[in-house]
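name: query_chain
kind: protein
chains: 1
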Amino acid sequence: MTKLAMPRIDRKLLSKKNDVIESLKKIIKAENIIDHEDQTRPFETDALSAYKQQPLAVVFPENTKEVSKILEYCNQEKIKVVPRGAGTGLSGGALPLADSILLCLGKFNKILEIDYKNRCVVAQPGVTNLSITQAVQDRSFYYAPDPSSQIACSIGGNVAENSGGVHSLKYGTTTNNLFGAEVVFMDGSISRLGGKTYDSEGYDLLGLITGSEGLLCVITEVTVKILKKPQTVKAALIGFSTIEDGGNCVSDIIANGIIPAGMEMMDKALIHATDNFVKAGYPRDAESMLIVELDGTETEVEELIEKISKIAKKNKSSSIKISKNEKQRLKFWAGRKAAFPACGDMAPDYYCMDGTIPRGKLAEVLKEIGRLSKKYNLPVANAFHAGDGNLHPLIMYDANEKNSLEKTEKFGADILKYCVKVGGVLTGEHGVGVEKRELMCEMFNNNDIQQQIKIKKALDSSSLLNPGKVYPILRKCAEEGRVHVHRGKTKFPDIPRF
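structure:
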C-alpha cells in the first residue's frame, strides 16, 4: 500500500475515547455505537480498499435530530466526523480517520413519500438507488440515474458524489434528477433546500451540496424526480475492428443530433471478460463494442435505429445486433453492469479509474491509454459512458508484487492528467476523495482552490467534516508554483498541512 498523507491525529482526543463514547451515549442508544476494533474493522475502508483506517467509533443515528445533536457535540469538542452511506464509493471519500467519528446513515432506510402528481419520491439517504425504481415500477415509473452499483449504493451517497450511470447521457446525473434535500451542517443546524419542483426560490444551495463529498453537510433526506417508462426501448450491440472506429462512431452519433438513452463502450479485453461472466452474446471478434439504447415511441425508436445503423456502417462496424425483446435487451446490459466483477477473472486485483473528456477526443485518449499500458507493463480493460465522455479504465495488477500498487496509481494518474490535457476533468461520477486529491492542482489554479476552501470554511469553520478529502496537499501545489506564499505564510493557516 502506498503512503497516504492524512490530517494529524489528535492524540489527546484518543486518550479521552471513553469520555467521548459516554457523551455519545447521552445522544443516541448505546447499541447504536460501536468502538471495539473488532467491530469497527468492517468500516475501515470504502470500495477503494487500497487504503484502510479504523475510526475512533462508529455511530448509527436513527433520525435527523440525533444527527444534529451528534454534529453539534463534535463541533463543540473539535472531533472530526466522516459521513458514510453504503460504502460503495470508489475514491476513498468515506475513509475514516483514527480520531474521527464515522457517522453511518444505514438506519435512514425508508421511502417517506411517493408523490405521483409531482412525479417525485421523498426518501431517506440510506435507501438504495434501485429501491426507488422498485417502489414505483408497478405504476410504470422509474428513477433514471443508474450507477453500476445501484443494487447497493445509497441515494444519499449518490447526491454526495453526484453519481451518474449508463442513462446519464439523456437523463442526466443525480443533480439533474434532484428536487430537494434536508441537510445538517457541522454546527447542528438543520436546513431544507429545494422542494418538489425545479428552480426553487433563492440561491441554488442544492447545487452546492450535490457532489460535495460529505465536506459541507450531512444529508438526511432527499426528494428525487421519477419518470414515466417510455413506450418502446431497444438496444443495439455494435462491434468494430478497431477501438478508434468505435470512438469515432460515438462522436458521429452525437454530431448527428441523436441522444440515446445510454451509450456504453467496451474494449476487447472487457468484451471477453463480461461475455464469459454472463454469456451476453457479445461480438468476441471485435476490438471494441458499443451498446446503444434508444427509447421513445415505437416509430421514433425504429427511425433512430436505422440512422444509427447507417452511422455505424460508415464507421466500419463489423457487426450490428438489435435486441428483439426485453429479455435480450436486459441481457445486453447485464454484461456491462457486471464489468467490474468480471475483471476479477483477469487479474488478482484491479484499479478502477474515473475521468471525463470531450467526446471528440475519445479515440485519441484511448490510443494514449494503450501507450501508457505498454509503458507501465500493466494490462487495462476499458469501459466508458461513451456518450458523455466518462471513462472507466480498469488497470490490472497483482497487489502481492512489490510496488505494484504504486506503479498502478502512477498509471492512473497519467490517464487523468491526459484527460485534463485534452480539455476534460479529473472525475465524472466517482468523486475526488483521497484518490484524486493530489491531482486537483492539475485542473485548478490556487484561486480556484481557495474559493472552494472559503465555501468549506463558511459552512464548517473548523474543517471537521470529512477532513483530508478533495483538497490537495498545499505543499505540493506550492512546489508547482500554484500557491502564493506571502511573508512565509499561506492563506487559511488553520487548515491542516499534511
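note: The longest helix spans residues 404-421.
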